[in-house]
Each structure stands twice: as structure tokens, then as C-alpha cells.
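Technical note accompanying the year-one report. For the benefit of new consortium partners, we illustrate the data format agreed upon in the data management plan: each record pairs a sequence with a C-alpha cell string. No post-processing was applied to the example shown here.
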Amino acid sequence: MKKLILIALVALGAWMHFNKTPLPVVAEEEDYVRPVAEPRPAPARQSISSSFRCDGRQYCSQMTSRAEAVFFINNCPNTKMDGDNDGIPCESDSRF
């Protein structure tokens, strides 16, 4: 029994000796926090008659121009064209 305890202690000591790698540095919590985009104020309805109208389209693939996409995100509900909420729709769409 004494031999078993002695072997365990030697093994533990050897493991601790060879495992002297420094602990990884943990970044501060604020390094992981992404700033939240400010919510856009509700746009005022334009009295100028536009050639665009809200017709239920939601995606960039359904738009024919960047101006149309901008009109839709500013005036129509439930659009899905501005994923990062920065006010610029269809940023990765190469057609515009």
C-alpha cells in the first residue's frame, strides 16, 4: 500500500513539474461585447409621390435597385434587407 501511495505522489509531482505551462489569458468581458446599433428613428412619411410602393417584398433579391431597397427599409414593414441595422440595405448584393 505504501508503494502505491509513493508511486501516486511521484506521478503527481512529475505531472505538476512538466505541466508548468502558463494559463491562457482570458480577455476582459468588454472585449466580447459588440456594440448594439442605435435604433433608427421612425421615418417620416414622404409627401412626395414616389415610384415605389410597399407591396410585401422583403428581400434584396426582389429589388431592382438600391434606391428601391432604401425606400423599402425606410417605409415598409417586415423587410429583411439590412441585417446589421446600419441603414444600408443589400450591402453584399453585387448587382448594386
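Partners are asked to follow this layout when depositing records. DSSP finds three helices and no strands in the chain.
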